[in-house]
Amino acid sequence: MADDIIPRRKFLLGAGVAGTAVAAGLTSQSEAQIPPAGPAAAPANEPVTYLTLSAVEAAFLSAVADTMIPADELSPSGTDCGMVVFIDRQLAGSFGGGAKLYRSGPFRKGKPEQGYQLALTPREFVGAGIVATNAWIHKVHGKDFHRLSPKEREDALKALEAGKAELGDFDGRQFFDALINLVMEGFFADPIYGGNHDKVAWKMIGYPGLPALYANSIDEYRHKRYLVEPRSIADFS
Q1: What 8-state DSSP symbol labels residue 119?
Q2: What whole-number distance in Å separates Cα of residue 146 and Cα of residue 67?
């Protein structure tokens, strides 16, 4: 991770190439495998009931999301954009249970291009990664990840990505790849899946949303910015 990768523009600029093949095998089908569960992310001042995450896990993922997507003039923080709700729904569904993963073994350490090779389900993998990371953070700082300062969180994520975090037999780099892919997916996904609250990411990048109706306006808007209110799946239900 470059020294300034966490700030918003760098995070978004690298979003298309942030995940490795390992993480892609873990997260690429997540959004498609779980139907929306209830309303979109609750406003920041309302409590959220999670489907699978514990309080410690939710706090960890909230800190990760807010470090990768800090509140600024472009959007609210990652948590307020619904990242933790999105991740919770993915892990609680068929994706989290490894429905489309081969899980009969044998499990051997593979190369990055071979994709996800662990016996753990994505839900188990994320849970184990949080435990391992918090244990390492405790040794260094004497507290959990979510209690670190913003700079300490950023440094910890850089160490994870570089494979320098001392997590024992757990692969910190692989865990980081999974985290950044989940956050990235949640930020740009249709709001019906829990993230991208109020379509903040779509509005930020000028994405019109679900319908392909704008194809008829290509000639009219050629070389011009296409300004419309984005529309999600929920807008057509």
Answers
A1: S
A2: 10
Give the sign of the dihedral formed by CA 175, CA 184, CA 19, CA 11: negative
> What predicted TM-score, i.e. pTM, was given to this entire model?
0.80
Q: Which alpha helices (DSSP H) does the chain contain, by range?
A: 8-13, 21-27, 30-33, 55-68, 83-92, 122-141, 150-162, 172-188, 200-205
The number of angstroms, rounded, from the C-alpha of 135 to the middle of its chain's C-alpha atoms is 22
| DSSP string over 57-93 | HHHHHHHHHHHHS--SSS---TTTTTHHHHHHHHHHS
As given in the structure block, the two tokens for residue 120 are 């753990």
Task: Please check whether residue 227 is in contact with residue 206, taking contact to mean a CB–CB distance below 8 angstroms.
Answer: yes
From first to last of its 237 residues, the chain has per-residue pLDDT tens of 444 444 554 544 444 333 333 344 444 445 444 344 333 444 545 678 899 999 999 999 999 999 999 999 989 999 999 999 999 999 999 999 999 888 887 877 777 777 777 889 999 999 999 999 999 999 999 999 999 999 999 999 999 999 999 999 899 999 999 999 999 999 999 999 999 999 999 999 988 887 777 777 888 888 888 888 899 999 887
Question: C-alpha distances in angstroms, 196 versus 42, 88, 145?
Answer: 12, 14, 24
Residue count of the chain: 237
